[in-house]
Amino acid sequence: KKLETKIASYKGLIIEWCQKQKKEYAFESYEDSGNEAVKHFSVTVSIDNKKIAKGRSTSKKKAEEQASKRAYFKLQKQIPTT
Questions:
Q1: CB of 23 within 8 A of CB of 9?
Q2: Using CA atoms, how far apart are residues 68 and 50, in angstroms rounded to an integer?
Q3: pLDDT of residue 81
Q4: Who's near 3: CB < 8 A, 6+ residues apart?
Q5: What is the DSSP track for 13-82?
Q6: φ, ψ for residue 61 (rounded to 5)?
Q7: Which residues face 46 on adjacent strands?
Q8: pLDDT averaged per 10 residues in sequence order, the chain, 82 residues
């Protein structure tokens, strides 16, 4: 039985994988507060100029991590975690 690998940073994982695969990646963030009192950030992860996933949170770092996690699950079959 394979143990579930605990991933500390999905962003780090995505960046590392892109570098190994010689893929271009970009994290684009913008302030996205909408009607809320609290400031929010939206982040889009792109790989080879294709938007893969988005994340939104109260900090840029959290939004990047959320977007990276979603990107990871979309690309899971291609990304080894060991």
A1: no
A2: 14
A3: 62
A4: none
A5: HHHHHHHHTT--EEEEEEE--TT-SS--EEEEEEETTEEEEEEEESSHHHHHHHHHHHHHHHHTTT----
A6: -65, -45
A7: 26, 51
A8: 70 95 96 81 96 96 97 87 60
